[in-house]
Design brief:
This protein is of the alpha/beta class. Helices cover about 30% and strands about 20% of the residues. Strands 1-2-3-4-7-8-9-10-11-12 form a 10-stranded mixed sheet, with helices on one face. A two-stranded antiparallel ribbon has the order 5-6. The two termini are about 35 Å apart.
């Protein structure tokens, strides 16, 4: 499927595109062309540089053999923006977890998930996460900083190179809250679509829900998938599981999701981690269906993946199926997603940058 074009530019307040270089990764052919010309090189070298970054995976400008040797020597210290591999582990289901070391020494995690027809990458958008969801390992480690566009795109290229296979799908669902790093996420989406060649509908942005940010995302009219981590059918239970949700009532969040559907014409996916005896009762399923009635949506039920810090349990299959049955009886679109990479601590909710 051909890549659906994104907006030709992402408007960043008080920021020009040239200020984003270096690092070079994440830049378009137009940006790279402007950059090489500032270095006194002919414009056509921008296209050459683009090819070496995105198709050949070059990590150092000194290795670009089509460039004049004397120029390569002057730009060898300019960063392309590639990370280094700190740790790699493979789960029995062939899911691969990577710990990547960034230029400042910080560690992030990304996950490659292969299947018969796809190679999906789960990318991080922050070092750590400030949302502090009670059932999630990522939030237990605190938050340090946002990732820039190069650090996000690099994760996809790293997995692509390791698997020797083109990435087909990208999910912004690793470390961090993407909509607290909206500017760099939009730039990374643009690059993944236009420069790496992944169709918009194969890109998913997951969010706990940040006031006004879903509406802002909708105004870009992208054809990506929006996945909202709901995890509860009412505000009281949601605050228990996601303390950061307290200032953003579930009614306001869902109203913003409805606006998203109206503006983009794209349905919203709702992620719902099933916790035994906590949010998996029949009354929870009925309340959830009532909440989502009347607009395009889909519920992804995710049986809980255990972490050491808390003692939540995964419901048994009968309990999961009963929840599914109630949603279906209420005409709520639903599917169950059993996470990959469980044994390598690479499954949903387990990411923690640990070498396990």
């Amino acid at each position: 499927m051909s890549a659906t074009p994104l907006l030709s530019a992402v408007n960043l307040p008080n920021t020009t595109q040239s200020e984003l270089i270096p690092p070079l990764l994440g830049a378009s052919v137009e940006e790279l062309t402007a950059w090489v010309q500032k270095q006194g090189q002919p414009g056509y070298r921008g296209k050459q540089l683009h090819n070496w970054i995105y198709d050949k995976g070059v990590r150092n400008l000194a290795d670009i053999s089509v460039f004049p040797k004397n120029w390569r020597e002057t730009v060898t210290d300019i960063p392309i923006g590639r990370s280094s591999l700190d740790y790699r582990s493979v789960a029995p289901d062939d899911t691969v977890k990577y710990l990547l070391k960034l230029a400042d020494g910080e560690i992030i995690e990304t996950v490659g998930i292969p299947s018969d027809k796809r190679l999906t990458v789960c990318v991080s958008t922050q070092v750590g996460c400030p949302m502090a969801c009670d059932f999630c390992a990522t939030g237990k480690g605190g938050y340090k900083r946002n990732l820039n566009r190069a650090e996000i795109v690099d994760q996809v290229l790293t997995v692509q190179e390791d698997f020797q296979q083109r990435v087909s799908n990208v999910v912004f669902m690793g470390l961090g809250e993407p909509l607290l790093n909206t500017e760099n996420v939009l730039l990374a989406l643009k690059c993944l679509n236009q420069d790496v060649g992944i169709g918009q509908r194969s890109l998913t942005v997951s969010t706990v829900g940040i006031r006004d940010r879903i509406r802002q995302l909708a105004e870009h009219h992208l054809q990506i998938t929006l996945a909202v981590s709901l995890h509860a059918p009412n505000q009281a239970l949601r605050e228990q599981l996601i303390p950061s949700a307290k200032p953003y009532p579930i009614e306001d969040l869902l109203a913003e999701c409805r606006e998203y559907v109206e503006i983009t014409g794209r349905r919203v996916s709702f992620e719902y981690i099933l916790l035994a005896g906590v949010n998996d009762l029949p009354e929870h399923a009925l309340e959830l269906s009532k909440r989502l009635r009347g607009f395009q949506s889909h519920v992804n039920l995710i049986p809980y993946n255990p972490i050491e810090e808390v003692d939540y349990k995964r419901p048994n299959r009968d309990r999961i199926q009963a929840f599914v049955n109630i949603l279906q009886e209420q005409n709520t679109a639903v599917s169950v997603r059993y996470s990959r990479g469980l044994e390598a601590d690479a499954a949903c909710g387990q990411l923690r940058t640990s070498k396990r």
